[in-house]
């Protein structure tokens, strides 16, 4: 059989050059729209943001007022920028530390053989992911509203509150509410990632552990979690990077208030570039965006190194087990 296949492959004539060229042109034609959109709305703005950062530019007219690194210096000396930077990192830490392990526990529960209605639960948890973030933010403003808000109405009816609370207007509660909504909004995506990782684990390893007398907790600790480390490191990377960009949610819910308590770097950049409060400062906003982009890139590289180390460790263990 192998000889026949090799003979047919050898007898097959090479395709003419014009035929291969025509196929390549068709492939380029089909990817051209996506390529043009990427160049116009992704690559070009990224490149030009680095150019605008060196000019005092309002977004209109030619680039004439070159200021060098003045925009970067002003950004680094602005306490409001550092407040927004601290809020962004704090939001990322809260989301990652709460959402990732909680999604793992829920994925383990949904993967249990005794649970019924798994498809329904997955749909319920994934529904917020496909809902527009801006719409979620606007709805949450009504739910957590100071007067006639659903949360206040429920808590007052059951006796936990004696008076309405302005959840999004108080410096003590606004940031916590934004964090909780952010965790809920993207929880379903992390759940799906964990489920995919759990269901891709080799079944024979669990069967061998069960034969050796391992209980559910022992299999979770010594089998499931070690095997999920490479997948978990990838989930950690994606969760951290995504949590650093929450413009639409914060803009719709609090607009960075009250008193900049929920201000994020994305909202800070938008406020100077497009808010319309006074003269727009696109050059200054671009400098802030460049600095923040460098920080996000460094965080991504550090977490990417973690992913590589986790993958290498798993490969080393697999090779060692195979040699044994």
TrEMBL record:
It is a multi-pass membrane protein. It is found in: Cell membrane. This is Melibiose/raffinose/stachyose import permease protein MelD. Residues 85-303 form the ABC transmembrane type-1 domain. Keywords: Cell membrane, Membrane, Transmembrane, Transmembrane helix, Transport. The chain crosses the membrane at residues 25-55, 91-112, 124-147, 167-184, 227-247, 284-307. Belongs to the binding-protein-dependent transport system permease family. InterPro entries: ABC_transporter_permease, MetI-like. One of its GO terms (cellular component) is plasma membrane. One of its GO terms (biological process) is transmembrane transport. It holds the Pfam family BPD_transp_1. It comes from Paenibacillus solanacearum. The gene is melD_3.
């Amino acid at each position: 059989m192998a000889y026949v296949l090799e003979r047919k492959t050898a007898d097959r004539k090479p395709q003419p050059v014009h035929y291969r060229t025509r196929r390549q042109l068709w492939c380029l034609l089909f990817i051209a729209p996506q390529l043009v959109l990427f160049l116009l709305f992704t690559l070009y703005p990224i490149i030009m943001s680095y150019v605008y950062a060196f000019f005092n530019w309002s977004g209109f007219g030619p680039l004439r007022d070159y200021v060098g690194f003045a925009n970067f210096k002003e950004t680094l000396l602005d306490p409001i920028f550092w407040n927004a930077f601290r809020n962004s990192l704090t939001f990322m830490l809260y989301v990652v530390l709460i959402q990732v392990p909680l999604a793992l526990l829920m994925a383990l529960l949904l993967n249990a053989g005794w649970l019924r209605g798994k498809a329904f639960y997955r749909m319920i948890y994934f529904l917020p992911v496909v809902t527009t973030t801006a719409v979620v933010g606007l709805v949450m403003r009504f739910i957590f509203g100071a007067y006639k808000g659903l949360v206040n109405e429920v808590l007052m009816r059951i006796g936990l509150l004696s008076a309405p609370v302005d959840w999004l207007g108080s410096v003590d509660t606004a940031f916590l509410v934004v964090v909780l909504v952010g965790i809920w909004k993207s929880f379903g995506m992390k759940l799906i990632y964990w489920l995919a990782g759990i269901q891709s684990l080799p079944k024979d390893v669990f069967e061998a552990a069960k034969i050796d007398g391992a209980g559910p907790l022992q299999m979770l600790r010594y089998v499931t979690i070690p095997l999920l480390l490479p997948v978990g490191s990838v989930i950690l990377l994606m969760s951290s990077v995504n949590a650093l960009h929450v413009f639409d949610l914060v803009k719709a819910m609090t607009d960075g208030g009250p008193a900049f308590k929920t201000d994020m770097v994305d909202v800070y950049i938008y406020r100077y570039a497009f808010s319309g409060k006074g003269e727009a400062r696109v050059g200054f906003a671009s400098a802030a965006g460049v600095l923040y982009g460098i920080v996000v890139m460094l965080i991504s590289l550090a977490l990417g190194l973690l992913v590589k180390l986790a993958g290498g460790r798993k490969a080393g263990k697999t090779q060692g087990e195979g040699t044994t």
